[in-house]
Design goal:
Structural class: alpha+beta
Order of helices and strands: EEEHHEEH
CATH class of the domain at 26-83: Mainly Alpha
Helix content: 25-40%
CATH topology of the domain at 26-83: Arc Repressor Mutant, subunit A
Radius of gyration: 17 Å
CATH architecture of the domain at 26-83: Orthogonal Bundle
C-alpha cells in the first residue's frame, strides 16, 4: 500500500524550494536502529557504532524528533554490498 508523502517548504536566500519527505509513521520502509540490528543479526550497539563511524553514509535518513529513521531499501542494499561473496562452483 502506498502512502502519500508529506512536504516541507524551505526558504533559502529568497528562493522557495519544496522538499518531499516520506512520513515514517505512514511508510513502513522507514525503520529504526533496532530494526536494522534485527535485519543484520547484531546488537543495536554494534549498528550504532557503524553509524557513528560513517558506515551508513549512503543510507537515507529521516529525523523528525529524537528518533532517527533509516530507509530500509538502502539498508538492505548496504548489507547486500557487504555480504555479497563470489560463489565457487566445483566442476
Amino acid at each position: 500500500m502506498l502512502h502519500s508523502p508529506t512536504s516541507a517548504t524551505l526558504s533559502t536566500q529568497g528562493n522557495t524550494t519544496t522538499v518531499t519527505r516520506r512520513n515514517p509513521k505512514r511508510d513502513p520502509n522507514w525503520i529504526t536502529l533496532a530494526d536494522i540490528a534485527e535485519i543484520v543479526g547484531v546488537d543495536r550497539t554494534t549498528v550504532w557504532r557503524v553509524i557513528q563511524r560513517g558506515g551508513f553514509a549512503s543510507v537515507q535518513t529521516y529525523k523528525p524528533s529524537a528518533t532517527t529513521y533509516y530507509w530500509e531499501p538502502d539498508v538492505r542494499a548496504w548489507v547486500k554490498a557487504r555480504t555479497n561473496t563470489p560463489t565457487v562452483t566445483e566442476g
